[in-house]
Structures are given as C-alpha cells and as structure tokens.
Amino acid sequence: MLTRLKAKSEGKLAKQICKVVLDHFEKQYSKELGDAWNTVRKILTSPSCWQYAVLLNRFNYPFELEKDLHLKGYHTLFQGSLPNYPKSMKCYLSRTPGRIPSERHQIGNLKKYYLLNAASLLPVLALELRDGEKVLDLCAAPGGKSVALLQCACPGYLHCNEYDSLRLKWLRQTLESFIPQPLINVIKVSELDGRKMGDAQPEMFDKVLVDAPCSNDRSWLFSSDSQKASCRISQRRNLPLLQIELLRSAIKALRPGGILVYSTCTLSKAENQDVISEILNSHSNIMPMDIKGIARTCSHNFTFSPTGQECGLLVIPDKGKAWGPMYVAKLKKSWSTGKW
C-alpha cells in the first residue's frame, strides 16, 4: 500500500506515498493535465525537490538574515516585475531545493520570517489590499495568508475566521507570533461556519479571501492512514458544493464594488474552474477580473497550466519551480442585484 521514498535529509525518516491517493490522482490528472502530469507527479512525490520561500516579517525585520540569504544566492520574489507589488512585502527564494530551519513560537517574541510555498502569495497579491480597507479571510488557518496580507498593508479591520477548533488554535498562535500588539487590536478572530458569515455580516467587507478547504494534493499524497485516505477520496466529490456555499456566503459579506479572491491548493478542475464557472453562471452581480498579467510577469518563477479562464490561474509544480499546486481566481461584485 505504501511506497517508500528516499530520506529527505539525514536523520529524518523517509516520507511514504499513499498508493490509494496516487492511483486516484493518476486517473484524474493525467486526463486534466495531459503530458504535464508526468512532471507534476514527479515533483509532488519527491519531497527532496520541494522548495520553500522565506517571507520576512516587517514587524521584526531580520536584516542579518536578509544579508545571509543574498550570500546564499536567494533572490526576491516578484519585486520589479509585478505592478502594484507592495514594497513592504519581502519574500526570498532559492532556485535550489531545501529550507532554512523554522523558528519556534515564543510568547512575547515576534518571529522574523515565515516559510511557505511561494505560490500561496499569489491569492494575497491578487487581492491588492490597501491601507484602511476592511478585509475578511474566511478560512484563515493556519494563518500564513493573514500574515502575508499584513505584510502588504495595514487594514482598517481584518477578520480572520476558522471553523475548525484545532486549526483555530494554530491560527491564533501564528498571528501572535508575527503581529505586534497594536495591530492585533484591529484583528478579529472568529470560529463561525464560513457558510453563515454572509448572513452574519452582510456587505461588510471591501475585500474577501476564500482560501477554501480542498483536496490539498501535496499532503494527501503522504497520508499515513490508507483507510482514512480512501475515505477522503470517497468524500472528495462533496468538496465543490462546500466551496460554492462558502463563495456564496463570501459574496453576501462583500460590499458592492468589492473584490473576492478564491484559492485552493489542488489541481482538481472540479474544485477550481468548475466552482468559479458555477458562481459566474448563477450570480449576475459577480464579474470575472482578468489576472493573466500575473502569469505573464511571473512566468520566470512559476509554471502555469491553462485554465480556460481569464480570471483564473493554476500554478503547477515544475523542475526548478516546484511551487504549487495553487489555483487563484479573482472576482468583483457589481452594484446590480444577483440571482441565487
């Protein structure tokens, strides 16, 4: 059932691929991605090829670390190539695999950096947060995108919501680790079913991020419990309905003229393009926003797979650019009434 992989580094146990999940992905993604799936599969099943970006924390800036990263050949992501890129956000990456050690959580001490998949910054950048805006992160745990949003601008109000109680603890700890007390005061953390947020806070927010629960291809491939993996796969068909319901709630919570960004970390068309198509077809007050420019300016750092949508991008892992999977779609709420 489980195929052993080579050890990622000395002293660490080898990760194991769950064959049930790999076989399932093989059937689906070989059809959806064609020949590209061969490379994607190789990267996803080889943790030794994975790359980690280093997002510097502007609230406790690590000047010495930044010098070291330069000396080690790291370069900044996006800067100089992406229009409207916030100068306050600094993210470094290396062209070679590997990661620097994570920092430990220490009460009262802000961490200096956050390790992440560089593609996960694309939804944050697509949101184009401005100082003073009210923003909702509807499915916020573990908190990396909330932290990244706060590197971009100082919102007037940031609402971080997470329905899962265990993940909520993780979210709170992440925020405490990276955000200074004065700014914590403009952040609200809640444990509401995201499908009810729109009714609870109608037309409250200028920007909404829906980083939806999804098939999380990277972690599913390394499920240690094959029985649990089989259960996940059988329940996978229910995810698009949940994602659509979360988006409908987000639309209600968004003010007219506001921006909504939807993201997942799966390659699945059913959870990506099909979900967005359903929203566009059922809401006359939701308009797609063209984000193809991001793909054009970021192609030296990311590999994009065609989505057939101007408003949607799909980052797929590639050799030397092992970022993703990450799907991002950008929508705008117009002033007309929508059909539900």
Structural summary, described in words:
- The protein is an alpha/beta fold and 340 residues long.
- Helix content is 34%, strand content 20%.
- The chain contains 13 helices and 15 strands.
- The protein has helices spanning 19-33, 36-44, 63-71, 121-127, 144-152, 165-178, 181-184, 197-200, 217-220, 226-235, 239-253, 273-282, 292-297, and strands at residues 2-4, 16-18, 53-56, 75-76, 91-93, 113-116, 134-137, 157-161, 187-190, 205-211, 254-264, 286-288, 304-305, 312-315, 326-333.
- The strands form 3 sheets. Strands 7, 8, 9, 10, 11, 12, 13, 14 and 15 form a 9-stranded mixed β-sheet that branches. Strands 4-5-3-6 form a 4-stranded antiparallel β-sheet, covered by helices on one side.
- The radius of gyration is 19 Å and the shape is globular.
- The chain starts with a strand and ends in a 7-residue tail after the last strand.
- The relative contact order is 0.14.
- Residues 1-13 have low confidence and may be disordered.
Brief sketch in words of this structure:
Helix content is 34%, strand content 20%. The protein has helices at 19-33, 36-44, 63-71, 121-127, 144-152, 165-178, 181-184, 197-200, 217-220, 226-235, 239-253, 273-282, 292-297; strands spanning 2-4, 16-18, 53-56, 75-76, 91-93, 113-116, 134-137, 157-161, 187-190, 205-211, 254-264, 286-288, 304-305, 312-315, 326-333.
